[in-house]
Write a structure and sequence with these properties.
There is one protein chain. The chain has a 6-stranded mixed beta sheet with strand order 1-6-3-2-7-8. Strands 4-5 form a two-stranded antiparallel ribbon. It has 2 domains: about 1-320, Serine Threonine Protein Phosphatase 5, Tetratricopeptide repeat (Alpha Horseshoe); about 330-475, Glutaredoxin. It is built from 22 helices and 8 strands. By secondary structure, it is α/β, with parallel strands linked by helices. The protein starts with a helix and ends with a helix.
Amino acid sequence: MYQLFIVFLFLSILSVGSFAQSRRAGATAQIAGNPTATAMNDSTAKQLFEEANGYAKMKFADFESKKIPFNDNLLKFTYREQKQLAAKYAAMLATRPNLTGEDVYYLAMLNWLADNSEKATENFQKFLTTENPPAERLQTARSVIVVVSARNKNFDEAEKLLGEYLKNDPIKLTERARMESELAKSYRAEKNFSKAAAHAEEAYRATKAVFQDSASRARGIDQLLDSGMTVYEIYRAGGKPKEAANALEDLRKTAAFVSSSALYYTAIDENIKYLIATNRKPLALQMYAASFAQIEKDFTAKPLQEDVSRRLKRREKHYKLLGEIAPELAAIDSWLGENPQTLTGLRGKVVLLDFWATWCGPCLAAFPSLTEWHETFKKDGLEILGVTKYNGEAEGFSVDKPTEIEFLKRFKKAHRLPYQFAVAKDNTNQTTYGAGAIPTTVLIDRQGVIRYVETGTSANREEEIRGEIQKLLAEK
């Protein structure tokens, strides 16, 4: 139920505008079910938008009251329903004759909620030309056009409207942060790092300024992380190590100010990895050793101190491995797939070690990505090795080693996993590679050097790993 409450908050933040508090009684129930044409035709443009904008929040409140279990599919389905509802209302509203300026504004907002950025921009542009539009709506219209223009790499249009936005009132820091962030990311994609950095810095400043007013602390922390890391990544990609380090140091100080142990850990962890990646490992390990005293200075609350310290101590083994020649896999009893392999024999290839187990749900969730990477990048020199060990059981029964091997063969075939498995006698390899938690992913470059070690899986983590694979394959 706690998860459902978090999603309920999350969806309230996703809403384009504030949830209508005074809408007509009973209208939501009609529209969320099977709305009649009369009910829709009697609604104003504003009411239609408010109904669509509040739909997901209303649904999750209903799920919570009925104790319906939360899952990701329910979240996606409800959010998709909300988009479909917004698109339906937008299409209906567009057929009405003699739309007022307010109607055009809410038509644009419905299209924006429906994820139809082309129609949203078209209607917002039209709204900009209406007579005496309210200043706040005018600013929102400009902000959305800037975001869409930035995504489409139409930088002249985006910069022009951003300039107009900043010359007028009211300036909402949330809107400014989003505009600056989209421009920063689009400029970075074009490798225009100087302009990307300028916009990223502004986005970060706006995000920090608005943090205390965030509707959700968790959401505010996520925004700080995203904007702060964007600044760092742009400077890193642009070859400015001093500025990159300063960005991470500022993120650490900001994390201390807002009392976020997770954000604080991320800033230190990224800084240590960055120093190792730029051939400054002794300095990185010095930073690691000194961080524990710094934690006590930055946090007075013992739970926060302990949380950061615990996270960093779990990473110590990984920091020591990064930048070093990968140790050979030990105590391998069986290879499932092709011929037995050695890491030395795989020099010249990029090697991904996936530490996993059959009972590990997150490990299984990563299988589709691992399979896709194997099929996409094997021809370019990627070799994936799944590393597991005997667990003494299979399908809920205690089994001997030959029986477990047969189970693993069936398991591999059932999940259509095309890469090799290494089955070890014990957990020696997990200890060597700091894979106490699984899944743990290790990436080894063509020279046999460990370049990446991370534990866990998620959509963002898989996207990160894919990017690292591509980067290492590009190195010759």
